[in-house]
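Exercise 3.2. Students should predict the tertiary structure of the chain below and write it as structure tokens, then compare their answer with the key that follows.

Predict this chain's 3D structure.
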Amino acid sequence: MSETLINILASIVATATPLVIAGIGETITERAGVVNLSVNGSLVLAAMAGFAAAQATGSVVVGLAAAAIIGMLIALVLAFTAIQLKQDQVAVGFVLTLLCADLARFLGKPFVNIPGPRLETLPIPLLSDLPVIGQVLFTHDLSVYFSFALVLATWWLLFRTRAGLTLRAIGERPETAYARGVNVNVQRFAYTMIGGALVGLAGAAYSLRIKAGWSANPPMDGDGWIALAIVIFAGWHPFRVVLGAYLLAALRAIASEIQRSPDVNFPVVLLNTLPWLLMIGTLMLVSAGWIERVLRVLPERIQRPARAILRSNPPGALGTPFEPQR
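Answer key:
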């Protein structure tokens, strides 16, 4: 395999990392039955806060912590208004995303185009020496390795633990979970804040590594909406979140290579729409039931695990407030 192709694959893994982290965070939140449409604004504000904190202290650890706290606080506001005050989750999330994006631009003015610390590349000994795989997966920074661990841990939590069963229950059938003694709203608060913290870390992954620094036109603005689309595309499954994020990063890499090629004359605007068109097309196929039709032709022993992986129905109580019985 050529060195150029290996570098492109490694770049895809790196640039997809914030989308993976944000997508997993939103997956956890929505599995608990809460829709967090503030992801885009949270991503932008956390990116600004993470860079500002890192620049002021000279520590990327402080920057990551600040970004996670910002994401958690935004999620707390959403949780309080949606769960405690029973306000419309979609409306509250949309207002928050607009507010946070504008707030980030206003508060970030002193930090525009100034240098600051960034996450350093830390190749993993022995693993990074493996041919191709080592260069593609194990020559990155800590945010990439964290995303690998996060996906596996989330899958294990959701499908292999009692806590994960409870998490899925409060998003699917909160009444049943409540009847079994689960405090549905307290757990929804907790998982919404955990998901928000992960979105915050995704913002810091942008400003401390992918597009290090802060600019007047934040390059990650808009990726929060993509993360939300990836969660739907993924059927609220961690492994498919990774697939969606890597696929979108690959399309961006292809578009970038085409733009740099002097032999290809293709409108840049159309190239930039490719990821969105693919995502819309995939969502249409999912909603039309094509995945289910394909599964029906498979042997019975394959259908059950395949359905678990390719699940495309949203949690049954997603976006629905829960009123405990008095």
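Discussion points: The chain has one domain: 3-234. Residues 56 and 164 are 39 Å apart (CA to CA).
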